[in-house]
């Protein structure tokens, strides 16, 4: 510990990705309270109770994961930053994770009764497979001896574990239902896309500095961890989706996103599924929401900076 304290200087950037990410995240800032979710109440009443149950409970699961990111995730990553600007970016991400976690409550208070809301939170605080993934990630976040494993856990959560839940609003969006709920989810997804690629990029810097043996060890651990999470995710998906018959489609979607998570970390995909395997209605929901979904797609290939797309009217269409 030195005797001086260093002021952050944004005119002397060590890593241009920090600055580009800060600009991207602040440009796409949003708040749940600006989306008129109450316009979806007519659509909501057309859903039968099984489908309403799925919507409520996948959002309960997503609330838990965004709570984990806002309370533990970013605080844990902040212990291992390379630059002061990275700390600033993580501060931004942490606040947005709180916005994400809160936005599900905005949806619940519009669509669900107080008793239903209580039941959803009781479920998400106790459901076996949901708790298993949350606690597995939380424990890695608190293992300060393994900073690169924290980043793997973070990217697996951001780019993989959220997607069993994201499937439902994207599916409804593709069927012209719950458009305002979907708008919130698309804004969350747009954020998670940047978060996953940014943390993945920071992971790759550290990974590339390891020796061959350490890289191999971490690589093997990462794939074992992915298999473990996927096995748990299969059970979670059956539990949530069997009643509406969407399980197989959701599993395809999450395998596709598991590959994206591994690619964010600079690793090879694990599953055979590609974008073409996924229900096109759901894929369409992703692509329309996130014109900048692949903003950092070049980061994994030699850390080239992606081109920032100009904001268009589309970015503000519901505001
Ligand atoms: Fe989030
Ligand atoms: Fe995130």
TrEMBL record:
Gene Ontology CC: one annotated term: ribonucleoside-diphosphate reductase complex
UniProt GO MF annotations: metal ion binding; ribonucleoside-diphosphate reductase activity, thioredoxin disulfide as acceptor
EC id: 1.17.4.1
Reactions listed under catalytic activity: a 2'-deoxyribonucleoside 5'-diphosphate + [thioredoxin]-disulfide + H2O = a ribonucleoside 5'-diphosphate + [thioredoxin]-dithiol
Protein's UniProt keywords contain Hydrolase: no
GO biological process, one term: deoxyribonucleotide biosynthetic process
UniProt-listed Pfam families: Ribonuc_red_sm (PF00268)
Cofactor(s) this protein requires: Fe cation
SUPFAM superfamilies on file: Ferritin-like (SSF47240)
Classification via Gene3D superfamilies: Ribonucleotide Reductase, subunit A (1.10.620.20)
Highest taxon, organism lineage: Bacteria
Glycoprotein in keyword set: no
Assembly: Tetramer of two alpha and two beta subunits.
NCBIfam families cross-referenced by the UniProt entry: PRK09614.1-2, PRK09614.1-4, RNR_1b_NrdF
Protein name: ribonucleoside-diphosphate reductase
Upper taxonomic lineage: Bacteria, Bacillati, Bacillota, Bacilli, Lactobacillales
